[in-house]
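Residues pack. One example:


***
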Amino acid sequence: MQVNERFQVVIVGGGQGGLAVGYHLARRRIPFVILDANPRVGDSWRKRWDSLRLFSPAFYDGLPGLRFPAGPGVKPTKDQMGNYLEGYASHFKLPVRSGVRVTRLSRQGDHFLVEAGEKRFEAEQVVIATGNYCRPRIPRFAPELDLGIVQFHSSQYRNLSQLAPGGVLIVGAGNSGAEIAMETVKKHPTLLAGKEPGVVPFRVDTFAGRFLFVHLVRALGHNILSVDTPIGRKVRPRMLLQATPLVRVKPKDLIAAGVERVPRVIGVERGLPKLEDGRVLQVENVIWSTGFLPGLEWVDLPIFGMDGEPLHDRGVVTSEPGLYFVGLRFQYAMTSDLINGVGRDAKRVVEVIAERKGTIRAA
């Protein structure tokens, strides 16, 4: 098989995790390339719904080496975050190859082979920085819905213009589902199905709330809840299985806005969504806010556990020397997949890359 190019390090994914790894590699002058499937850096944010804003203020939304260009209390929009990431890559002259979707990663002797369609890249070391939100999770029974019902995953939702006249059922009561419900209920009768994942017990959009939220995330999520602490190791398995508690939208906000809460959707009957209490809902729109799968089927290496999750030690895959992850949920701490937490994990992975690079050269 012909190899087009060879690199010391290939980073798969040009989002916040991949860029943070690139920043630290560049500082150590280790040659690398970032392969990203999107047409532009930052598109993973730009493709989200139009009204999305971050929970955290701009002061805490920067990557290593470059602060977010906004007032400290501003909650960035999804487009502002996308533009920041694009500017970050440009500012540090990071070598990003856009529009390159990796389709297979395998081992070839003492190197890795990265395939992207007809392109082939050989690498001494590889960092997978695609995160946890690659492939939408949609129930198997979704295709059984009547063809007249408009249905799509929450990752495809942009604004109200996509909806047909009539009722909207949002399946999944996490943050995305709750925030989209607050928007759809303005023009459509809206039902929100699923179990509430808990709630942050204060308002994050007030001055006091911003202070509490940021310091709670920073102190608790960044420093206390980690794999290095007993409490972090105890709560990690549960947090990996649960959705993030509601942050901005509270349950009483949904009720006040007119959103009707209904039980879990368990299937389809006569082409209509069926609830676990036996009710069949007559709606014209269904939005599946049911989360994501890692989407790592292209990794052709024996690195996965019985649960399908990659086996690693703080992002270092010990069973495949030279392979790493950045941006996984609770990779090291609760903030590992957040914009303000990914930099620490990226730095640690690059330290291991540098050590292994020295060992390879010595050999």
Observations:
- The two ends are 26 Å apart (CA to CA).
